[in-house]
Request: fold
Amino acid sequence: MRPLRAAGLALVADLAFVVLFATIGRISHTEGVTLGGVLGVAWPFVVALLVGWEVARLRTGWPVRMPGSSTVWLVTVVLGLLLRVATGGGFAWSFGVVTLLALGLFLLGWRCAAEVLRFAVGGLGRWADRAAARR
Reply:
């Protein structure tokens, strides 16, 4: 897969997970799942995600794979919470912890799964070829 296409798909996946996070939050607090309500919760984290992508790109050069993913995750959480509070949204420490864990699972989880799959498909074959050559 070409790098630009992979980055586009990864960004779409990240955006979808941020919206899923906001949707689950609305459902768990029985606030109703409306487009406006979900976007009202999601927008600070969407903005923070885009900033996180740029920071990761500048630091590691590639926010799609594991080295850049922790930057994307932490910037999304911290800046998203700051934007939420700065614009009148509520904050509780429990919400901060849930945000950290849920977005960690979502933003790091799919990247971990992709790394394992990438190794299983490509790396394991290369490893087996090298092992066979040593015999």
